[in-house]
Amino acid sequence: MTDFAPTPSAAPLASVKVLDFSRILSGPYASMVLADLGADVIKVEPLKAGDETRGFPPFQNGMSHYYAALNRNKRSIAVDLKTPEGKKIAHDLASRSDILLENFRPGVMDRLGLGYSALSEANPRLIYGSISGFGPDSPLSEKPAFDIVAQALSGVMSVNREPGQAPNKLGLPMGDMAGSIFSIFGLLAALHERNSTGQGRHVEVAMLDSMIAMQGYLSQIYFLTGRSPEPVGTQHPSIVPYGSFPTADGYVIVACLTERFWHNFARCLGHPELIDDPRFAIYQQRLAHRSQLEPIINARMTSDTSTYWLARLAEYDVPSAPILSIGEALEQDHVAARQLIETVQHPVVGDMRMVRSPIRFDGEGPAPCVAPSLLGEGTVSILRDELNVPESEIRCLTARGIIKTCAN
């Protein structure tokens, strides 16, 4: 099979080389965003099965949905890092890289001889990114960390529920993605700094730290009152009315973040008298009298359908929305107009629909996506073109089981 590489583009990170040792979600999402921005990302995978997510069903012609969602625009090299030859390949690639990303438990990369101190000595310009569950100095540092663990320990699950219901995790894997997002911030900041200093850095991000940092106003409620915020479901802990409201045939979202929107909503309901009612006239009073206001709203809204209310809310300029399924969200007009879905061709899988990066520069979206690679699909081209390894040596490494290509 012929190796393929991402199409060159004039994207902002087009000259940046990323060596990605990460797997599952928190690291791969971060490296995918860097790839979307133009970076040349080489994904280093274990020989036998590669990134664990390659085995997560469901599959499209053998390609895992999970792996596909997080690994577009990357090249895969499969190498045994426990062999001296495999370690040398990793060291040689790191010496040519701008950014290295890993998300093992603290200490794993050091034991492999691929820690920051070892690699930065040969490449002082290397920016080394580490994403872990808790960080090396946490009392939890040795504890396995996955998305739901970070969500539980961050407090977010305690408020992600209706009052009186069991705690629930966010539908999005936010524990993983928070670590990804903050690592991107850190890596790009370090890359900017390196332009002035010529020196790399070790950027460390913990998933739990990131989730706690994203509590926003919830943490300030606790600091101010000394009490943990109570769950309010789709409602807001301090803004009323805000959340999902029942209609005759479903629910719609209403979000009155300003007094103007509250006044618009009261008129939309046909209850303009609520605007001057002292119980509801200002934020604090609406919050204090939530239990009296919401039944009035519910009684009025359940008298008509969701379609009726969405049209009327739009007419009165009230922030509102239907609650869409994932499929409905992906097929809505906005997604088509913004060209957020792209069909890419994979040499084995065939046509694949993928969500594109949301970032635009000068009004233009990202370059066309390259489909996620097969395990070891880029091994030959990476060794040959990046490290100048002779074809004969590549055949020898393959025969000895140190590397894997698509042909073996």
UniProtKB/TrEMBL annotation:
Q: Gene3D superfamilies annotated for this entry?
A: Crotonobetainyl-coa:carnitine coa-transferase, domain 1, formyl-coa transferase, domain 3
Which Pfam families does the entry link to? CoA_transf_3
Q: Keywords in UniProt for this one?
A: Transferase
- GO function terms (MF aspect): CoA-transferase activity
Q: Which SUPFAM superfamilies match?
A: CoA-transferase family III (CaiB/BaiF)
Q: Which domain of life is it from?
A: Bacteria
Q: Give a yes or no for keyword Cell wall biogenesis/degradation in this entry.
A: no
Query: Keyword Transferase on this protein?
Result: yes
What protein name applies here? Answer: Crotonobetainyl-CoA:carnitine CoA-transferase CaiB
Question: Which organism's genome codes for this protein?
Answer: Paracoccus tibetensis
What is this organism's lineage? Answer: Bacteria, Pseudomonadati, Pseudomonadota, Alphaproteobacteria, Rhodobacterales
